[in-house]
């Protein structure tokens, strides 16, 4: 099942990206309204309060604040374990909207965090593999603009610089600044 594969790939990528944050929690992200710690906090809320209740019937969970004594990586590791375990048992098909949206969110925000880390010289930007790019492009290019470009969704497309990678072009289409 393509969605199941992409979901777990996105979950692993996000965990790896969060591991790279270290003490750099206040770096800006490509998601203009949040720094990297805000992106992680948002993703915890999405996983525990939207995805798991929709996909498994679980009660909405507690998402600790970024100011917790645990590092962001430690906080995410607990969420990752809970989500991974629950979603392994969950039954969903390739058209499941809550899982699809959560999967897109994991990939987009992995890139957002990596953008901030790369801009500060603390790592490289995430590049999606061809399979993931095809899946994301298919989703993004088949959603009506009025549903895709909303305050809760994606902003207006930006210009990808000359020589941009396929991932950077997709992120520009999603409204991110990729320069």
Question: How would you describe the overall organization of this protein?
Answer:
With 179 residues, this protein is mostly helical. The protein has one domain. Helices cover 58% and strands 0% of the residues. The protein is built from 7 helices and no strands. Helix 1 runs antiparallel to helix 3. The longest helix has 23 residues. The mean pLDDT is 90.
Overall geometric form: globular
Straight-line N-to-C gap: 35 Å
Structure annotation, total helices: 7
Give the rounded overall mean pLDDT. 90
Helix and strand run: HHHHHHH
Number of strands: 0
Name the helicity range.
Answer: 55-70%
Strand content: under 5%
User: Structural class of the helices, strands and pairings?
Assistant: mainly alpha
Radius of gyration: 15 Å
Low-confidence stretches: none
User: How many individual domains?
Assistant: 1
What is the makeup of the main sheet? none
SSE layout and pairing:
Layout: H1 2-19, H2 36-56, H3 72-89, H4 97-119, H5 130-141, H6 145-148, H7 166-173
Main attributes?
globular; 179 residues; mainly alpha
Short description:
With 179 residues, the protein is an all-alpha fold.
């Amino acid at each position: 099942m393509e969605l199941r594969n992409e979901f777990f790939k996105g979950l692993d990528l996000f965990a790896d990206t969060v591991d790279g944050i270290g003490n750099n929690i206040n770096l800006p992200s490509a998601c203009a309204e949040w720094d990297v710690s805000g992106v992680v906090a948002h993703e915890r809320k999405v996983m525990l309060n939207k995805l798991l209740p929709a996909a498994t019937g679980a009660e909405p969970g507690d998402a600790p604040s970024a100011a917790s004594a645990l590092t962001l990586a430690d906080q995410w590791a607990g969420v990752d374990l809970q989500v991974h375990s629950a979603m392994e048992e969950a039954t969903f098909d390739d058209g499941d909207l809550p899982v699809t949206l959560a999967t897109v969110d994991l990939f987009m925000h992995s890139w957002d965090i990596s953008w901030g880390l790369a801009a500060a010289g603390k790592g490289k930007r995430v590049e999606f593999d061809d399979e993931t790019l095809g899946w994301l492009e298919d989703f993004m290019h088949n959603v009506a603009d009025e549903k895709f470009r909303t305050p809760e969704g994606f902003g207006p497309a930006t210009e990808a610089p000359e020589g941009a990678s396929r991932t950077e072009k997709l992120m520009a289409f999603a409204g991110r600044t990729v320069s």
